[in-house]
């Protein structure tokens, strides 16, 4: 009899992703008998997380085993699945990633994944993920590695090229979130009644086909009409790209705008709302601590309500222990379908381009729908992207490869090369000045550039 799977979650005690994992344990009885191993470097939060997980294990009908430790290598032994969601510095460094280039005149709109800020985010994240990949290679090389960290495709490419890990799959909710947005706000349909075929590279993905799930009706004509009725300020960049190219982006203005030189005209240069994130994070952990002890009261929920103002529904902590009508992570449907041998369609996965998209380079990570069953995850073949979309994506792929090389080699020249390939950079002296300032400001997080 096949042993029950072991799932190791690295970065389990994260503020947003961690609670999603616990709620998906509730939602996926197909993983009955599974052992979940939770790993995090933050001891206090991991202790809270462990208590929460054990409360859940005691309440659900199916059986799961819970283990928690800060010892990554010990927790990787025998793992069948490794879920990775880790971050270096996060909000403090994200603030630098955004503000330093913008003050210098670089018109980047978010600074998380594109622009000089996104480049430095990659330079910090890739070495940590390579350390993790090499541990997996040595300890559990047959494990399926499910990456949820950003910048997603750059991390996945680095892990695949510079370690001996086996299967690496990147997971992002962007397509799913866009489907739900279009269903509710534009098409007036339940979210589960539209199905898109979207492809490209992560956060630079385009809806090539959009249909009513039950009837098979092509929804593109209704999409065009519905967008005309929408508030002009909502998703203005995505709508303009749809108007010009005929394909709607599947990732929202804030994400696709990172790779578009004129995105600032639509999104502005105010950046992400980072100011209150740290206090909101502390407030969430205060509630999670009380939830873990069974002592949360009405006043605690009121405080969490303030901290969660503006949060997406999937991130809210209301009715934490209740089953959901949607999945909180994309890792769990993959594991559940694999273990139960049931066919399941994923809206988007990021995997090596081994014949998925013909006019993007092979051996880089691309995003497409996929099907999952007991034999694993198989991307759905797309063929050729329309030429303008492929041109957008090829530019990002070229920068992606240079960014990975820069992160691995610690070569300043490659950093400058990657920066100058970025569409939001339009001045050589500015690019070099910003790169050198960022290398100084973040030196403690970038030891490869000594």
Tell me about this structure:
- By secondary structure, the chain is α/β, with parallel strands linked by helices.
- Helices cover 46% and strands 15% of the residues.
- The strands form three sheets. It has a six-stranded parallel beta sheet, with helices on both faces. A three-stranded antiparallel beta sheet has the order 7-8-9.
- Strand 1 (6-10), helix 1 (17-27) and strand 2 (35-39) form a beta-alpha-beta unit.
List its traits.
three-stranded antiparallel β-sheet, LDH C-terminal domain-like, 17 helices, six-stranded parallel β-sheet, Rossmann fold, 450 residues, alpha/beta, single chain
Instruction: Supply the number of structural domains.
Output: 3
- For the record, the CATH class of the largest domain is Alpha Beta
Report Rg: 21 Å
Helix tally? 17
Name the average pLDDT: 92
CATH fold-level topology of the largest domain? LDH C-terminal domain-like
Q: So, the CATH homologous superfamily of the largest domain?
A: AglA-like glucosidase
Beta-strand content estimate: 15-25%
How far apart are the termini?
52 Å
The major sheet is characterized as: 6 strands, parallel
**SSE arrangement, N to C:** EHEHEHEHHEHEHEEHHEHHHHHEEEHHH
Strand order across the largest sheet: 3-2-1-4-5-6
Gist of the model:
The chain is built from 17 helices and twelve strands. It is of the alpha/beta class. The protein folds into three domains: 6-89 and 122-170, Rossmann fold (3-Layer(aba) Sandwich); 90-121 and 172-272 and 329-450, LDH C-terminal domain-like, CATH 3.90.1820.10; 277-315, no CATH class.
